[in-house]
Amino acid sequence: MLLIGLVFDIMLIMFIMISVLLIYSLLMITIETQTFNTGVMRMVGLSGKGFVAMIFIQAVMFVLPSLICAGVCVVPSLWYIYDKVEGTHLDWSDELLPGWNAVIQGLIVGILIPALSAIIPIQRALSKSLVDSLNVSRSQTQGIVYTI
Amino acid sequence: MVLPFLVFGSICVIFGMTVYYFLPLSLLTQNAQLLLQIFFFILLGLIVGLTLLAVNLRGFLEKVLIHVLLFWERASMRTLVKKNLIAHKKTNKLTSVIYALTLGCIIFLIEAANL
Questions:
Q1: Which of B23, B46, B19, B53 is nearest to B108 (CA)?
Q2: B65 at A interface, C-beta within 8 A
Q3: Is the ipTM of this complex over 0.85?
Q4: Considering only CB atoms, which chain B residues are within 8 Å of A7?
Q5: Interface test with chain A among B36, B52, B89, B106, by most A beta carbons within 10 Å
């Protein structure tokens, strides 16, 4: 029983790591391609806080469907597990609803993933100077690597 | 920058303390909970460390793949592809890390299911 818990813990951590990296790369690509748009927004008068909130909301948008999906899927999957493990057909009861611990844990993971993955993209986007991001005559990707 | 050295040093200190103090302690006191927790961190470290080791092979693999898959192209074309791969090095690196982690996760799950 302890070993199964261990395997589930490792699975959870691995999935968190993979999804953080995935959302991080998606955000980075968005920021690299949308440099000009964000430059225009900042020029017009978007504040730093507003900009951070924009990227964070974008990260949350990746997580939101999975949270909703988890909320919908939890009841049938709990019913299925009870059916298979205990062998009893349950009618509607409180046991089919997740406990408070499970709900809070899921919510914490759901906030942790976008928060972790948005840190470096926000830093990168804010560190770009306005002149560089508004410059359309030069390509944003560099094809030359300097080694000293 | 001193921060990476500090982080690596503290990771090594924690690793040494776990292996040389907490692991024997858990065996002596027959504390299965602590033993499994240590096991958990060692497994996580194994997966992450092997992934990071494997990512170092990426540059070499890229060169080999260019020569194997594009052997019929002109040398100038191969150089062009190489330059493009260098230009997108960062995203390639990240993708390879994600891919390696996912593969490691799947292999780990299969092994755990076989146990």
A1: B46
A2: no
A3: no
A4: 109, 112
A5: B36
Is residue B98, in this structure, part of any structural domain at all?
yes
Range of the domain at B83: 48-114
DSSP annotation string for B60-98 = HHHHHHHHHHTTTS-HHHHHHHHHHHHHTHHHHHHHHHH
Chain B residues with beta carbon closer than 8 angstroms to that of A14: 47, 101, 104-105, 108
In a domain, A7, yes or no: yes
Q: How many residues does chain A have?
A: 148
Give tens-digit pLDDT for A24-48: 988 888 888 888 888 888 888 888 8
A141 to B88: CB separation less than 8 angstroms, yes or no: yes
Q: How far apart are CA B32 and CA B48, in angstroms?
A: 24
pLDDT tens digits, one per residue of B67-92: 899 888 888 989 999 888 888 888 88
Residues from chain A contacting residue B102 (CB–CB below 8 Å)? 18
Evaluate whether residue A133 is within a structural domain.
no
pTM above 0.90, yes or no: no
Q: Whole domain around residue A6: which residue ranges?
A: 2-128
In a domain, A144, yes or no: no
Domain count for chain A: 1
